[in-house]
Amino acid sequence: MRIPLLAAILSCLIASSAMAQEQEQGDVAAGKKLAELHCSRCHAVGEHDASLMQDAPPLRDLKLRYPVDDLAEALAEGILTAHPQMPVFTFSTDEIGDLLAYLDSLE
Questions:
Q1: What is the pLDDT along the chain (107 residues), one digit of tens a residue?
Q2: Domain extent at residue 54
Q3: 3-state secondary structure 24-81
Q4: Is residue 14 part of a domain?
Q5: Total domain count for the chain?
Q6: CATH number reported for the structural domain that contains residue 52 in this entry
Q7: What is the value of pTM for the model shown?
Q8: Do the domain assignments include residue 7?
């Protein structure tokens, strides 16, 4: 009798842990929408497309240049670059999580 109850409790704990991890990682679909809205006029935001602005790296390459988690602070405080064409963006905590989840999902 104890084993089925223990198995049920363990199942619930595993499921809630997976859901919590998914929430911490952000929403990939929402991150893609943010990338399309804010980044696509210069950067490639998909798996295989080319950037519209020649010097703008595809977003899929950002995780090759920087650890994705390190981008969180820059997104929160505003990304400043040496390129005057790059607008300054600041995102909410949820938006940052979503955008980072999307960047991390790109191959």
A1: 455 444 445 444 444 344 334 445 689 999 999 999 999 999 999 999 999 998 888 999 988 888 777 788 778 777 666 567 777 777 899 999 999 999 989 97
A2: 26-105
A3: HHCCHHHHHHHHHHHCCCCCCCCCCCCCCCCCCCCHHHHHHHCCHHHHHHHHHHCCCC
A4: no
A5: 1
A6: 1.10.760.10
A7: 0.69
A8: no
